[in-house]
Amino acid sequence: MISPEDNDLLDNPKYRQYINSIEKALKSFESSSEWADLIAALGKLNKVLNPKFKVIPRKITIGKRLAQCMHPALPGGVHLKALDVYESIFKIIETKRLQTDLYVYSMGIFPLLVNASMQVRPVLLNMYETYFLPLGKSLQHCIDGMLLALLPGLEEGTELYERTDILLVRVCEKTGDLEFYGALWRCILSSSATRLYAVQLILRRFDRRKTTDDQLFIIGSDIEIMVRALCESLQDNSVLTQRASLDILTLCCPLSHIPISRADCCELLQAALLCLLRRDMSLNRRIYSWLLGHDQTKMRSSTSSLEQEENVYFDTYAKALLTEALALMLGRQINKLTKFDTNFHISASDELFPLRLLVSLLDKQEIGPMIIEDVLVEVFRLLQAAVHFVDKKYDNENFVEDDVDKATRISEISKTANLLLGVFEPGYLWQFLSQQIAQARKHKRRDEKVAIPFRELCGFIQLLLVISSVESYQEVQTHHLPNLLFQMIILFSENVTKLSAAELKQGLETCNTLLELAQPVQPPNSGSLPDENNYIVEQSSPVHYSTVPRDNGYGHDITQCFQVFQEFFCNFVKHRLGGNRSDVDRCLRNLESVGAQRDITQDHNFKSSQSTPPSSVVFYVSGSIGSKGTLKDVELVDIFQLTCQMMVDFSCFPLYCNGRLNRHTQKLEITCDSFPHWLKTLLWCICDCSINASFEICTISISALLDMMSLTNSARRGNSSDNTSIGPGMNCAGMVSVVVLSPMTSNHVTALTNQSSFYQKITRRLWKVLGGDDQYEHHLSAVHLLLRLHAVCPDRRCEEVLLTDMLHCNKDTRLKALEKFTRLWHFTRTLSTKKVSLQNGVNFKHFFRCLFAILDSLNPSLQSTQTSSLFELDCGGRSVAQATASSWLQQCLEERDLVRVLEPLLTVLLHPSTHSKYLDSKDVFKDEHNIPNSSGPSKVIQSQDARDKNDGPHVNESEVINDIVKGKMHYSDLILSLTARSFVEKSDELEAKAEQIVKEVLESVLKKLQEEELPCERDPNTTKFEVGPAAGSSLRKTSDDFSRKCSSVNTFALLYQENFDASRALYSLRSILTMLQTHPRLFTYTAVTSQLSAYTSQSVGGVLIQDLLSRHMQALSGRSFYAEVMSRSHNVMVVDLLFVVCLHYIRSWHPDDVIDPDTLHDIRFASCKLLLSLLEHMTDLARENVAASSNMTSPIASSSIAMSSQQFTPFVRSILNKYDVSKVVLESLFATVQALHVSSGEDVKRPVTVTRSTLGSLNDEELYFWWSGNNLARIKSFQAHLLTLVRALLTFDYHLMETDDYSSNGK
Known about the structure:
Membrane topology: Peripheral membrane protein
Distance between the termini: 110 Å
Largest sheet: 3 strands, mixed
Strand content: under 5%
Helix content: 55-70%
Domain DOP1-like middle TPR: 313-518
Family: Belongs to the DOP1 family.
Main location: Golgi
Keywords: Coiled coil, Golgi apparatus, Membrane, Protein transport, Transport
Radius of gyration: 51 Å
Strand order of the largest sheet: 1-3-2
């Protein structure tokens, strides 16, 4: 833009020539390459300047070129030459035009001083004094830049310090104080390089003899800029700047007379507090002086009076401001962590710097302790926000971080937090939280709005429990945590109707955590306890909370918490679940056994025509069971679950008692009416809760009650075996007793068991749930509770409820019960696979009698004896019950659950009373069936239990054995009615069959077996086999061995050593045979591929079976059955067990008439038939293995597990060789041949009367006849089955040889 004056000069030819000269001189700058060229160019420019014209043409370009020559990298000569040009220009344009063009030339002059050389600086200052000061008020337009240019000259110790200071004073006089200091504050705000000089200038200009009000100009024209500038200077990197800034605060802004607003003062205070992070004592001292209103560097003549003055000053002026500033600072950090995008990488621990500020403030006794309580809540909120930030960051899908990194971040937060928490006394924080809970309780009682929401308080407690080291201080765990827990439970109990569901849930979760971390009070070392070795620690036992001694001065706070919690439990059920006292009492009366039977089967007829269960087992159900509840119901269920869990945790809480121990003395017999109210309420929740989610409430209640009952039973069993237990009222000086805070005593459990129908009703309800197809989501829970209930129940009443329906006379009831039991069985397998325990160390106790009922459904011969209306036939001709049982068995076999099905049957077949020994054994004639209990079956069971005595209450397998062998009265008749059938054929048919076999097979086979070498040929047109070197090598070798060695029956025949229930053994063998006949291929394959050790890890019964097997093998080796087992069989397959059992019963006989010989013969028949079926189907497997190997297909298409021919053949051969199957069968067959030969004489046609005492007097011929059956018909029948076994062994050996040929030849 050209002024009118310049426009007039354009008409002057000399001015135009002047412009051309200027432009020519400026072009010389473009060709400059060195600083010398710049000096020459500047000289040319200076020469062409014409003082005749008061206007400088091309001034913008000239200003730029001169500013370029002021570059700090150029030498001082260039700067001086440029200053000469500036001076020439200023002389030409004079002051008036300089005011207009100041912006053109100042951009080169102002930045020069800070980088100018010593020879340049005086020249520059002369220029300021000569040409700039005369500008007067016009300097206000460039005052900011001029101050930034001159302030570096205030560096102390330099030659120009005083000259610059005087220059600035004159500038202040020219521009005015208000404008000058306003510009000075702007310089402080914008430039960190001149900040220290500006702050020091303000300090020097401040008159300490006057107040700030008398010299308000020093604040400047804009208070906001002044506050911002001071905040920036307080956060400057230079400690000197921070010190000077704090001095300004102390002088200009005393807290007793603040010249600025409260908000601005809080902002300044926040910036000043950040100086504490530098841990610099000079800075801390200045901050404390500002807050306390007293110079901390002065000597204290009267310490007490000075401290009092400081406290008064701080409380009056500084405390509120400091609290507000800290709260704002903490709140700002909370908002930052809450709203900060987790995609940005910030450290949550770095954002916790306010905690380090508090640590520094707490070091100052006059400040920190006075304000910490007012900001402690914000501290908790900041820690909570930091933890949530880390959780959110690592849960964000944009971040793929591992849990280790997250744990590291949380650990950093904990370390930062513990810097502050470690300053406090161990119990201070917990006392503070207890006070806050107490205040919330008062506000809730008065329906007032609480300052801190209850849920937030719970979050603080949970956070503090996580990040603080609670375990480091015993006092916290034994005193402060129980006190806090007590306050919270009191609040729950008093405001159960006012607290929301979310508040109750979070509060109970917090209480549960507090209870987990709380510890009992340790008893003091009194004079009666001389040293630690004199302590006698008693086993845990349930003690009523009212009898725990409290006279030791320690106060068992947990017991008080438990009392209040029981009250809360009753109030919660009353107000939230509708359990009034009248309803609870009515439920208890219905539950009492008024006319109820302890044993249902004693008074109920299984053959009754009623289609409904008896009234004593009908469960009162009000409301829908298992219906899908609303959100409110779901919340109530969660709260109730937490409540019951806490009840159980309280019951398990240990207490230490010292001195006289007053045990809770109770009546010998109590009634259900005398139950405490909490127990009645819990029983009401089990029985009569009528909300939509009643099943969930019921299951939670059942689980809690069973936990407490198991705890009581466990402690009672422990006390019964403890010889050092202390009697009631005994003086326990020098003894420490560990007791459990269980509110449920053994008398309560006894009354609930003997005087109520508790077990029956609960079993009936859970059993009913299993029958509901619309309640499938509850089936697993119902099964789990049924197993737990059955394990806790002292007798079989739970199983009797199930058995009532399974053997009911009504067809629909019975079939429905079969379906429910199949579900129960399969879900039990699911629980075992998941290794779900039954709590308190209780193992699974299976429903074996119900298992017998479903196994009986597989046998059509048993079903044919029933009334035809009871079993409806399906389209395949099978009964529906048989089809259901068959489908159940198929699924068990496919899921490889065969061992669990066989467990009760194998337990019977391997029972200690069934063990036997060889006839030639030296102690075979001892009367062992009268062995005392100490060396009988109970000893075996006790040895098994002894290994698990420290693992809590286990299922006693002796009960299983005794129930099966001896039987209950009501079930004995049932088993006899189901199993008292003989498979012995008519004697005429049996004799004809035996004679035919003897003529056709025995003469042609046995005679050949005695020859040394026999030709072996197979007729391709027939299915008969002849023994030869190919097919009968192994069998011939066995026959050669026994023909040379078996000169007497004593070498292979076995003798039962005790009396046993043969009908049960026969029933077990027939049941296994029925399962094999139902699914022959799948059963055989599963038996071959299933290992006993896989089931041993899940059940005590599996361990017992393995132990019994080892003992039976030990008895055959000549050692005592009841002696300690020296070696155990490992990697035992199911087929091994079946082979051992069959061979054991085939060659064993009983000498006395106590056991019916026909029953023993039926056992032999069933064993032969089972072994025969196994061999036939294993033959099929061997044949299919050959075909599968050639076709590269699986031998069993339906099975998920296949065994190749290379694996199958060696495995089967190992079984046959390990148990000498061929040898045993041939020896037995040889004995029958000898027996038939003996019976051909006229003098031994009648049975031989033998007892154990007269057995040794018999000769070999009589022993052969007696051992083979002691009856002609039985001997011939036995021989016929043995011949069938021989044929099966030959066939099986042939197919094994085929497999070997294929493997060796690769065909």
